[in-house]
Amino acid sequence: MSGTGLRLPLVALCLLIAGVLADHQRPFRVHPNSIRYNVNNNRPIIGILSQEPSKTMASVSPESVSYIAASYVKWLEGQGARVVPIKVNQPDSYYKTVFDSINGLLIPGGGASLVSSGYGKAGSILYDLAIEANDNGDFFPVWGTCLGFELLLYLSAGKRDFLTTCNSYNRASSLKFLSDASVSRLYQRAPNDVLKTLSKEKSTSNFHHWCMTKENLTASSLDNFYRPLATSTDDDGLEFVATIEAISYPFWGVQFHPEKNVYEWGANLTSVPHWPSAIKAGQYFAEFFVNQARKSQHRFASRQEEATYLIYNYAPVYTGNVSSSFLQSYFFN
Ligand SMILES: *[C@@H]1O[C@H](CO)[C@@H](O)[C@H](O)[C@H]1NC(C)=O
Ligand SMILES: *[C@@H]1O[C@H](CO)[C@@H](O)[C@H](O)[C@H]1NC(C)=O
Ligand SMILES: *[C@@H]1O[C@H](CO)[C@@H](O)[C@H](O)[C@H]1NC(C)=O
């Protein structure tokens, strides 16, 4: 009896110490539901979907078919990932090869059609591959930012659109965390100072004219697939969903742009929060996602093949003179 009495406080003390250590070091986030996937892959490679450039963007690279803003690349590279650009309008076999070789997918923001663009079509193929892989126990994380968030919602709704117009362009906002945030994989173990920044400071970068409301997440039954974790409010007081986490898949989406805080300085981007706590908050999302990608065991057939796909085969070009959104961009023919 006394032995048990002694052990319990010791166990409690160890847990306390582990908790304190975890708070400061936390080298690898493990969600209870994903322990079976906890295999550290310390060479994570993340695919970023490219999209058709606007006319002004194309003026810098007239031959190009698609582009990726360099801020997304740097955002992932800053957490120890390498990037493979994913081209548009390619045969299915290309997407299958790339998918089987990368450890996660980032669907970035931008201005392409969800329905008819090469971005929308490639996104749909990759989304189906991600669903199939995860259903088969092959852990594969997907992240959508802004337009990528909207594409995830569109695809998960069976290619139906439940967005409504709103006013949140060139606006910094804060997050209102919903009750599910505290049990989510994304926010549950986020550092307290990051959560405080996100909820108390206008630290998220918003550049969108379309919004998903909580009402429509329910009306569309998308709430069976995604939990809304946080909302923000637009210029007219409309509350919109700002973060989603898929209930049964490692899929996340944010309506805001965490990569802009640290990497975008366009002269017209007057709203982007560049102060230290906002930078740290923006980088938290990349840290989380790259650590998810570390659980995927996909890889290229060889290091030689890997080298031919990596983004280092391309050089970023200065686009700050033609686009207020992107200082540097990668172009693909
Ligand atoms: C819900 O989605 C529909 C499109 O299916 C849209 O017309 C409507 O404005 C949306 N309503 C809200 C409250 O978001
Ligand atoms: C913008 O800068 C790029 C890269 O230096 C250059 O190729 C392009 O001609 C410039 N465009 C304009 C309109 O100044
Ligand atoms: C910035 O805004 C000004 C005024 O609206 C506009 O004339 C200019 O083209 C914009 N610059 C870029 C790079 O988009």
What is the spatial order of strands in the main beta sheet?
Answer: 3-1-4-5-11-10-9-7
Give the amount of beta strand, in percent. Answer: 15-25%
Count all strands and give the number: 13
- Under CATH at level 1, the class stands as Alpha Beta
Tell me the major beta sheet: 8 strands, mixed
Mean pLDDT: 91
Name the helicity range: 25-40%
Question: Which regions contain 5 or more consecutive residues with pLDDT less than 50?
Answer: 1-37
Radius of gyration in whole Å, from Cα?
20 Å
Order of helices and strands: HEHEHEHEHEHEEHHEHEEEHHHEE
| Tally of separate domains | 1
**What is the CA-CA span between the terminal residues?**
74 Å
CATH superfamily descriptor: Class I glutamine amidotransferase (GATase) domain
Report on this model:
The structure is a single chain. The protein is of the alpha/beta class and 333 residues long. It has a single domain, classed as 3-Layer(aba) Sandwich (Rossmann fold). 37% of the residues lie in helices and 21% in strands. It has twelve helices and 13 strands. It has helices at 2-24, 55-58, 70-77, 92-101, 118-135, 147-156, 185-188, 192-200, 214-219, 258-263, 276-293, 303-309; strands at residues 45-49, 66-69, 82-86, 104-107, 142-145, 164-173, 176-177, 204-211, 226-233, 239-246, 251-254, 317-318, 328-332. The strands form three sheets. The chain has an eight-stranded mixed beta sheet with strand order 3-1-4-5-11-10-9-7, with helices on both faces. The protein has a three-stranded antiparallel beta sheet with strand order 2-13-12. The longest helix is centred in the first third of the chain and has 23 residues, at 2-24. The radius of gyration is 20 Å and the shape is globular. The termini are far apart. 44% of the residues are buried. Its EC number is 3.4.19.9. Residues 1-22 form the signal peptide. The active site is at residues 146, 257. Keywords: Hydrolase, Secreted, Signal. It holds the Pfam family Peptidase_C26.
